[in-house]
Structures are given as structure tokens and as C-alpha cells.
Amino acid sequence: MIKDNVKTLVASMPPKVALCAVSKFHPVSAIREAYDAGQRIFGESRVQELLEKIPEMPDDVKWHFIGHLQSNKVRQLIGKVALIESVDSLRLLDLIDSESDKRGVVTRVLMQVHVAREETKFGFYPEELLDYFKGRGFERLKAVHICGVMGMASNTDDSMRVRDDFRKIACIYREILAICPDLIGFDTLSMGMSGDWPVAVEEGANLVRIGTAIFGPREY
Ligand SMILES: *Cc1c(COP(=O)(O)O)cnc(C)c1O
Fold it and tell me: What spatial distance separates the first Cα and last Cα of the chain, rounded to whole Å?
């Protein structure tokens, strides 16, 4: 089942789109099944759960952290993940930078942008994010590499609104590239989940985060 879901999804996506299989709330046995189908990127939203799963899986898994990251958990996460997709404040960014620097590692991150109207409370407002890049704030980072932008669309059946949200996120991503054409390795646009990923890909996503369509419903 899970294996088939992974294979079907990968086959239906353009080759340039990477799949992050969102395994939060699912057991390691389920992650194994996806792994055996060739899946290597997995997304988790809680630090404790992620830290418990890491030693249970092979070393070539690329873990993405996709949840709201509390300051007091940053230290535990540094050095363990391939990408933190959900940096939602400059304070958090600076903390990841100083902790990574202390540990002598470079942490790759995406900046989470907030466009959906009421559903998600986390993320930078577009203006705030653009100001950061206009001010070239990233030049002060010692041990963080900003690789792109992550965003979520409104949780609604209104497909026009979903597309509109993805357009806004993609527009911010391209605007950052236009402001800072010299940004190296800023190449990732993460948007789209189980219910809306085809629209996200149409609007330019090259990383999608899919849980339910692979693993089934979550039991919280
Ligand atoms: C849970 C989660 C997903 C996956 O959602 P599905 O609808 O199960 O595909 C994607 N992105 C983020 C940030 C999430 O928290």
C-alpha cells in the first residue's frame, strides 16, 4: 500500500520535483515501507518524535523538519536534519545560526512565508521577508545556508484561493531571487500537500510535502 502510494506519486510528478514524505505521527514500520520503495526524504514536525525515529532508520535518510520550531529545541535538532523547512522568525534564524556555528556545522533552511489568511499562524509576512533580503541580512549568517522558501495555502475547497496562495508564495520566491541574484544555492520552493500538490507544482513548486496520500490518515 504505502509502497504503491510512493511509486504512484513519484511517477506522476515531473522529475525536477522532490518528494518529502511527511511521516509525522506514523510509526517507523510505515517509514520503512516508503524507504523500501526508494523514498529517502522524510518530514517530521515534532523534535522529540524525530529524534526517536532517526536511529531507527538507515543513515541515508534525509530528514526535513517541517513544524514550528521552539527556541528551546533548536540545539537538539542541529546536525540531525538535512533541511529545516520552517524558519518563521529572524530570532529563530539567528539561534539556528549561533548553535550551528558552535557545533561547527552548516544548517540548511527554508524561510516559511505566511500567505494563507487565517489557518496558519506561523511564517514571515511577505514584506518582512523581502526587507530581510533587501537588507542582505543573510550576509551576517555564519553557519546557516538559506536554500529557499516554504509556504502553505489556505485550507479550503476554494481552488482559486489555493492557487492564488501558491502564486503569492512563488512570487515572493522569485522576487527574492531578483533582489539577490548572487544568492548561491537559493533554489528550493517547497509548497503543496496531499490535497493540493498538483496545483503547487503547476505554480512552480520543486519540493512537495505529502503525508496522508502516502501513509493514510494520522491518529493524533
Ligand atoms: C502535516 C504537514 C504536511 C502534510 O500534510 P498532508 O495533508 O498529510 O499531506 C505538509 N506540510 C506541513 C508543514 C505539515 O505540517
Answer: 21
Q: Return the ligand 1 atom nearest residue 150 CA.
A: 13
Provide the residue count of the chain. 220
193 Cβ below 6 A of ligand 1: yes
Class of domain 2-215: alpha beta
Tell whether ligand 1 has an atom less than 6 A from the beta carbon of residue 26.
no
Q: Which atom of ligand 1 lies closest to the CA of 85?
A: 13
Task: Please list the pLDDT of the chain residue by residue as tens digits (220 residues).
Answer: 999 999 999 999 999 999 999 999 999 999 999 999 999 999 999 999 999 999 999 999 999 999 999 999 999 999 999 999 999 999 999 999 999 999 999 999 999 999 977 666 799 999 999 999 999 999 999 999 999 999 999 988 999 999 999 999 999 999 999 999 999 999 999 999 999 999 999 999 999 999 999 999 998 7
Distance from Cα 24 to the centre of ligand 1, integer Å: 9
Locate the domains of the chain by residue range: 2-215
Query: What is the four-CA torsion angle of 83, 85, 91, 97, rounded to 10 degrees?
Result: 10
**Closest of 107, 68, 72, 71 to residue 88, by C-alpha:** 68
CA 122 to centroid of ligand 1, rounded, Å = 14
Give the span between the Cα atoms of 186 and 180, in whole angstroms.
10
